[in-house]
Every structure is written in C-alpha cells, then in structure tokens.
Amino acid sequence: MVKVKNLTDKEYLYGHKACPGCGLGTIGRLALKILGERTIVALPASCMSTVTTQYPQMNYSVPSLTMAFAGTGAVLTGMSAGLKAQGITDVHVLGLAGDGGTADIGLQALSGAVERGDDFIYICYDNEAYMNTGVQRSSLTPIGANTTNSPSGTASYGEKKPKKNLFEIMIAHRIPYAATASSAYPYDFMNKMEKAKSIRGPRFIHIMCPCPTGWGFASDLTVEIGKLAVETGMWYLAEYENGKVRMNVISKTLKPVEEYLIKQRRFRHLTEDTIKLIREHRDSEWRIIRERWVLSKC
Amino acid sequence: MINKSKSSNLDFLNGDEAVAYGAKLCRPHVIPVYPITPQTIVVERISEFVANKLMDCEYIHVESEHSAMCAAMGASLVGARAFTATSSQGLAYMHEMLHYVSGSRFPIVMMNANRTLAAPWNIFGDQRDSLAQRDTGWIQVYVENGQEALDMIIQAYAIAEDDRVYTPVMVNIDGFVNTHTYELVDIPQQKDVDEFLPPFKSRNAIDFNHPRSFCMTASTEWNMEFRFQQQQAMDNAKKVIEEVDKKFGDKFGRYYGGLVEEYRCADAEVLLVGMGSIIGTIRIVVDKMRDMGLKVGLVKLRFYRPFPLEYFKGLSTRVKAMGIIDRDISFGYEGAVASDIKSALASSWFCSKVINFIAGIAGRDITKEHIEKMYNKLFSLTQGHDEKELQFIGLRW
C-alpha cells in the first residue's frame, strides 16, 4: 500500500497548462511519483500532450515523446523493444492517452501491443469526449451527454450510444493486469500504479477524469463529481489479474443517477424519459457485473 | 557504376533477399514490420535469420504499417537502430508517421518495394507510392538491381546517421522486376560492414541525466525554424551522399556516383532520365543506338530527395533534347520527376526541349522498343518537329 509520507518530493510533471480543476495533471504527477525518474512517457495528440509539451516550455523532468494519435500502443512497443535489445531492464515505459486516443483511433495499436505481451504501462485518462478539440463525442462518451457533435435538440437527447467497455476489451486480451480508477480516488489510483509497477508485460489502467470545461461543472467540484460517478454506479473501481476481477467498491445500494447528472451542464437537457433510459442502462450493466464478477467470485 | 570489387562471396538472390541481407549486415536492434506484396520476402527472410540466431534483434509482428513506423520511432527514441520495409498501400498507410519520424530527426532506414496504388487495385510496379511521399522529409534513393539494393541499405544508415544529416532514408526498389528477380549478388563480409558502419550512438535519443521532450508541439513562433533545419539537413545530405558513396566504393569496390550516374553522356545529343529497374534496359538500348552512330545518353537519377538541382541546371548547355521517364503521373499536370527537372531548367531555353514520357504504370512493361521510340522523338524535337510535352508510352490505344 502506498503511504503519502513515503512518496518522493520530486516532481516529474510540473507547470502544465491544464484547465483549473482538471484531474489530468494529478494523474500524470502521481503516476510518475510512483514510477520514478527512470520512466519514459509517450503521449499521443491529446489534452495531456497539449498542456505539457509546448516548446520551449517542457513540463516533464523525465524523457517524453509526443506522437501520432493512433499509435500510442505501437510506440510503447518500439521503446520497450529498443530498451530490451540494448539490455536495459530498469526503465518504465508509460503511455498517457485520452479516451478517443485509446478507445477509438488508438484501439488497434493498443490491441496489437497487448496481444504481443510487450512491456509497458498504458493509462487511459477518460474525460468522456474529445476535449482537446472542443468536446466532440468519443466511443467512451456516456449515453445522453450533450457534446458539440452529438448535441441535444428537438429530435435528439444527445449521445445515443452507451459507453464502450474498454476494461472488458482489455480482459478479453488476457492482459497481465488491468484496472479502472478515478482521479477522485488518488490512493486507489496510486496503489494500482504500484501494483502495475511490480508486474511485467502489458498493464492497463482506465482512469475516469472528470472535466470541468467539457462536462460543465465548477472547477472545485472535480472530486465530488468523480466520487458521485462511483457512488451512483455510473463508474466503478475494479482490477483484473490472473483471470479474476476484483471490484474495489461494491455498494449495496447505488445513489440515484440524478444526483450525478444534474450537477453537470452536459446532462441538463435530459427529460425524465431519458434519465430513465440512463438508469436502466446502469442497472443492466450492474446486473452483468454482479452476475459475472461479484456473484460468481471468479 | 564503377565496379572494382574483388569479392567472390556471390549468391543467387532476388532483390528482396538482397535487402534482407543488407539489413542483417547493419545489425539493427529493432525490426517492426508488416507484410505486403511485393515486400514480403524481406519480412520472411529476416524472420528466418532471427529464428536461426543468424541475427540478434527484436523482430516485432506489428498489426499495421502505421504501427511499424510508430514502433521504429519508439525504438530510435531509446537509441536503438531500427529497420522496416513496406510497399504501396502500406507506405500510404504510414504516411502520417513518415512526417513524425523525419520531423523529429530519427535516422530510421526503410526499404520500399515500389508498387502502384489502388484504385484500380494492382500489385505490380510503378513509383507513384514513394513519389507521393515527396514532402514527408525522407531521403529517397532508387536502385537499379539487387546488388545496389543491398549496398544502399548499408549506405543508407551511414547517410541517415551522419551528424550533418539525421534524417530517415527510404531505399526504393521496383516491385517484382527487382524484388522477385534473381541475380548474382555479392554479399559483403560482416567484418567489413562493421568497419564501414560503426555501432549506432544516437545523439537524438533519451538520456535520463538530461531529460528532454521529443517530437513536442512547436507553435508558430518556433515551427518554421525546425523546418528550416530539416531543409539544411537535406542540403548537407547531398555532400554526405557523395562522401558515403566514395567511402563505400573504397571499401567494397562499388561506386554508384552519388546523386546521379551518367551513362555515355559525354558527347550525347539527346538524353533519357530514369529511375530504378528501367535503367538496365535503357543501358542496352543506348549501346545499340551508339553502335548505329546515334549520340544518345542516359542519366540515372538515384536520389529523388535531396534533388540534384545543380546537376540538372548544368545539363542545358550540354545536350539538345531530353526525355524524362516517369513511372507515375500527378493527374492534372505531369510526372513528378519531370516537374522537378523542368523546374531546375526553368531559367533556360532548354525547357522547351523536354518531353515527359509517362510509362511503366502499374507494372506495364517498358520495352527496348519503347525506349528507342523515346530517343527518336527527342531527335525529332531537335530537328524542329513538334512533339507534345507530355506523352504516354505503351498505352493500349
């Protein structure tokens, strides 16, 4: 278990230009504190690369590479292979990519890298839309969300399709370690990073990263929104290892989805009918989770 | 080409195999590669070398060409020497990454088996795949046969990794005509290649003592300066290419002439300019026409980027007419090579004495008769007859 007093005082990500209230800087900062200075960071086109690698103000004090949107998995493969070929074994290779860069355009490269069993840690920070380009929907945008290219209107309640389950896609690869996390639960995240650090091969952490700008909430509510996502069952914290899934938080009763939805501008347009749709979708997902992972105690 | 080689390590190889041997001799650390006809034999031979411990490298089965170039870039970032190979649709698919690699100055070497692009779908050779990558910032060389393919893989690393260059190199070899044709190829000794090409010590790789961000965002205030440096590197490469050619010749006995090679041009009245496998055919026709007393010559354009501007500028005072063979066409204008050469000649009267021949598209044969016809059209032009600036040769109608 990670103890704060044991964390290094060194900062490996510092001075970035992320929006106020964004959890992204925290994710990068804590991840690097766990992994340490012998880490190389790969960043595709994303909020993360935009706010941390604007020449000449470089915000990492570990080596980093900004690269093409679609290729994070493959560039991690190349780094890991290049290190191995030169006999270097004490370096961590870390990818930091957004939801679009991971679940949409980058999914093929990620799948290839995981299938090959290459040695890297991949963090997908999920702010549930293409935030860097101005809040367009991705396959990880939740049903009902208003985005700039899935707007609500007289004939639309916003995003029509439910969020794709990336965690299960990774499990289908029989990856050595996968986890979901949230920027509102930093201890949980750091423990998962610590766990990932201790394993070799591909490791994947899907971390929810509430976005004040894109979701429409005040910048001091980031943690509250992140916690509500888990408490209402709109997100969950879990780990997969050795063929087994462990749910880190299992609530007997989930809070009403409205408590989460009404605090965000992207859901303000929703009618009782569409909120019902979201509730039903959540309940159906949890039925699957309970049947497959909790009750079966696999 | 001048061949003073005394080596006798000859083997009967096709062009792809020659490339595989060339890559093996350069000891790359990492080879991420994805199969595509007609490059596949390269992929297969290298995997056999690795499977039999004849080669010590990380051979990666990537899931696309885009990922092949991403992985090569990742490897180069950590100081590893990287090699890959592709063709046609694969090259087009990795287009984005070609810019990334050259812009962040990773000295990666790639073989491209020249093949046409769909649609209409076709697996046979022309050069529109690589010519369309003109502005990606890669050095491009076109080879005539398997021997030159092998030799240029080795030279490509020496050029790419030169401190004055640090720019990736694409070695282009014509699909099927070269990739699948068996010839006697001299395989250099590993010891000699090791002396010629020292181990890769990248000055553009990570260093934990001095952490840097690579390939970062450069705003309007800075971006243009990075581009300027790329252009400087390309200019430097012209000199480096000549130096490497000489150094290679001194070591292995084969001198290719650098950016261009002239064949029987000294007193030529008309010239043909071409690239790649067609050069061998043209040599034969030149010899035949010379025997008939006709003053014809051949310019083998080896490097498309950096482009031998100074050489072509100087040609206008030497000959009466020139034909340029393009195995591609930029629809709505003309062949890409012709555009470049004509641009070099723009300030001279000679520009009006140039014909752009479009030929050999998608593997269409360019026969000796076609070549002879081209020369005759050039003579016709010198005698004051009208000839169209752009002509398709070998069309069915």
N-to-C CA distance of chain B:
37 Å
What does the largest sheet of chain A look like? 8 strands, mixed
* Average pLDDT for all residues of chain A: 95
- Overall spatial form of chain A: globular
Task: Enumerate the strands of the largest sheet of chain B in spatial order, edge to edge or round the barrel.
Answer: 13-15-14-17-18-19
Low-confidence stretches of chain B: none
Here the CATH topology of chain A equals Rossmann fold
Please tell me the total number of domains of chain B: 2
Rg for CA atoms of chain B: 21 Å
Return the CATH architecture of chain A: 3-Layer(aba) Sandwich
Q: How many extended strands of chain A?
A: 12
Instruction: Measure the end-to-end span of chain A.
Output: 24 Å
Give a written overview of the molecule:
The complex is a heterodimer of chains A (298) and B (397). With 298 residues, chain A is α/β, with parallel strands linked by helices. Chain A has a single domain, classed as 3-Layer(aba) Sandwich (Rossmann fold). Chain A is built from eleven helices and twelve strands. Chain A has helices at residues 24-35, 47-52, 72-85, 99-104, 107-116, 166-172, 186-197, 212-216, 222-231, 257-261, 272-294, and strands at residues 39-44, 53-55, 57-58, 64-67, 92-98, 120-126, 152-153, 156-157, 177-182, 202-208, 238-241, 244-247. In chain A, strands 4-1-5-6-10-9-11-12 form an eight-stranded mixed sheet, with helices on both faces. In chain A, strand 7 and strand 8 (156-157) form a beta hairpin. The longest helix of chain A has 23 residues, at 272-294. The model of chain A has no long low-confidence stretch (mean pLDDT 95). Chain B has a six-stranded mixed sheet with strand order 13-15-14-17-18-19, with helices on both faces. In chain B, strands 5-6-8-7-16 form a five-stranded mixed sheet, sandwiched between helices. The radius of gyration of chain B is 21 Å and the shape is globular. Chain B has two domains: 2-255, 3-Layer(aba) Sandwich (Rossmann fold); 260-392, Rossmann fold, CATH 3.40.50.920. Chain B is built from 13 helices and 19 strands. Chain B is an alpha/beta fold and 397 residues long. In chain B, 54% of the residues are buried. Chain B has helices spanning 15-25, 40-51, 65-77, 88-93, 95-103, 128-131, 146-160, 190-196, 220-252, 278-291, 309-315, 336-344, 368-382, and strands at residues 2-3, 10-14, 30-33, 58-61, 83-87, 109-114, 139-142, 169-174, 182-186, 213-214, 217-218, 254-255, 260-263, 270-274, 296-301, 303-305, 321-326, 354-358, 390-392. In chain B, strand 17, helix 12 (336-344) and strand 18 form a beta-alpha-beta unit. The interface between A and B is large, with 44 and 42 residues.
